[in-house]
Amino acid sequence: MSDIVFLNNKYFKFKEAKISIEDRGFQFSDSVYEVVAVLNKKILDFDFHIRRLKYSTSELKFNYKVNNNFIKNIFQTLIKRNKLNNGIIYLQITRGVQSREHVYTKKLIPNVIIYTAKKKFNLPNKNYKGVKAITYPDIRWGRPDIKTTSLLANIIAATEASKKFAYEAILVKGKKITEAAHSNVWIVKDNNIITHPANKEILKGVTRTVLINIIKSLRFKLIEKEFSIKALFKADEVFITSSASFVTPVIQIDNVKINNKKIGKITKSLALNLYKSIN
User: Fold this and answer.
1) 250: closest CA among 157, 132, 162, 134?
2) In this structure, CATH architecture of domain 131-277
3) For the chain, does the N or the C end have fewer beta carbons within 10 angstroms?
4) What are phi and psi of 271, to 5 degrees?
5) Are the C-beta atoms of 4 and 82 separated by less than 8 Å?
6) Which helix (H) or strand (E) holds 187?
7) pTM of the predicted model, to two decimals?
């Protein structure tokens, strides 16, 4: 965990960083966040994260203007002061502090919290591994395209996956796959790469966006469409993407083996090309 934290224009030791118990992020999940990967001290996909942060704060009408250079300087300072080589930067912006009331008042002053954490990534090297996933009902609120801290449904799904010794929970709405508890979901069938379209039913993942550009550059056939749980189980390959998972192969879902529990060729190729693009 961070030794040094940024909170509202000041740097604190982690244990000394505090906000009011009437902060709306604490009481109502009235806040947004980003998780940004750091690899070999390099901040990954910064511009994409900032673009999504601006979208989230705008959709929720926060009284906060996102300043790219200001935030990047904080990130770089925390990387240096916390001696972070590989890990994540967590940024959260809350609407602010107000006496408890569902209706928020205008022009509240947001709380801005940024800290770092070390993390080992599943990279496409000799230790690259496939993971197990489960399926779970998608019971999230109706706007998962906004990256809010309202994650209780995700937490329930992810915890259920952990109980079953699985890495991720793939979410099912009706008979369709949306995404996963903390990642986007992709399938490969007959050399076609398929993923859910970026609409208001899923979060437009940063790694998802980067990978789409790579897929197009490699001239693979990409199809953005809804797909069923049946298609998921019958896929030639399955993988998930996120800022912390990069491209992670899924080799078993529930009791169904995917590609005989081997990492697929297309998945491995995409993982390698993504890794090359960030080095």
Assistant:
1) 132
2) Alpha-Beta Barrel (3.20)
3) C
4) -60, -45
5) yes
6) strand 184-189
7) 0.95
- Alpha helices, H only, the chain: 24-28, 46-59, 68-81, 152-163, 206-217, 229-233, 265-277
The conformational region for residue 219 under phi > 0 = left, psi -120 to 50 = alpha, else beta, is left
Q: How far is CA 106 from CA 53, 63, 95, 110, 225, in A?
A: 20, 8, 10, 11, 39
Rounded to whole angstroms, the Cα distance separating 216 from 219 reads 5
Per-residue pLDDT of the chain (279 residues; tens, 9 = 90+): 679 999 999 999 999 999 999 999 999 999 999 999 999 999 999 999 999 999 999 999 999 999 999 999 999 999 999 999 999 999 999 999 999 999 999 899 999 999 999 999 999 998 999 999 999 999 999 999 999 999 999 999 999 999 999 999 999 999 999 999 999 999 999 999 999 999 999 999 999 999 999 999 999 999 999 999 999 999 999 999 999 999 999 999 999 999 999 999 999 999 999 999 987
Residues taking part in catalysis? 147
The C-alpha atoms of residue 201 and residue 261 are separated, in whole angstroms, by 29
Strands 42-43 and 176-180: unpaired
What are 63's two structure tokens? 């009284």
Alpha helices by DSSP H, listed for 60-187, are 68-81, 152-163
Domain boundaries, the chain: 4-118, 131-277
Provide CATH code, domain 4-118: 3.30.470.10
User: Under a CB-based contact definition with an 8 Å cutoff, are residues 127 and 250 in contact?
Assistant: no
CB atoms within 10 A of CB 10: 9
In one letter, which amino acid is 15?
K
Q: State the alpha helices, DSSP H only, in 93-197.
A: 152-163
Q: Round to the nearest angstrom and report the end-to-end CA distance of the chain.
A: 25
